[in-house]
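Hey,

Quick one before I head out. I ran the complex with tetrahydrodeoxyuridine overnight. Inputs first:
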Amino acid sequence: MTLTEEKQQDLIKKANQVRLKAYAPYSNYQVGAALLTTSGKIFTGANVENAAYGVTMCAERSAVFSAVSAGERDFVAIAVATHNGGSPCGSCRQVLSEFGLDINVLQVDDQGKLIQQNTLRDLLPGAFQSKDLLE
Ligand code: THU
């Protein structure tokens, strides 16, 4: 599955749609993520905050966990939508890196404008990976 212009637009649209479902009463920073699998499916997630701030779940990890729970582990790209095209946090980079450093990360704003595009390899140099457990 290559990231065609059409798929990319679909991914961006779905990230912004799910962003509207974010539960973020504390930060008021809504995040939506849409994750494309090599099989062509799209899994989405939004951030879900909590009065005990530390148990908040990010949008990207929510999308990854949803995909993995459906038996999907091969990912092409993830679109992350915020009002300003913000950057994925370190924990989400680490979780995504488990499934491949070639995953494309598209940061988009609430108008669907592509603000930044990187691979996981760019975003998390020297990622701790399963091979590190063996050495
Ligand atoms: N957040 C995400 O959903 N993804 C990120 O990569 C960065 C941060 C959420 C967590 C929290 O609900 C809000 O954004 C502010 O940090």
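The first strand starts at residue 32 and ends at 37.

Talk tomorrow,
K.
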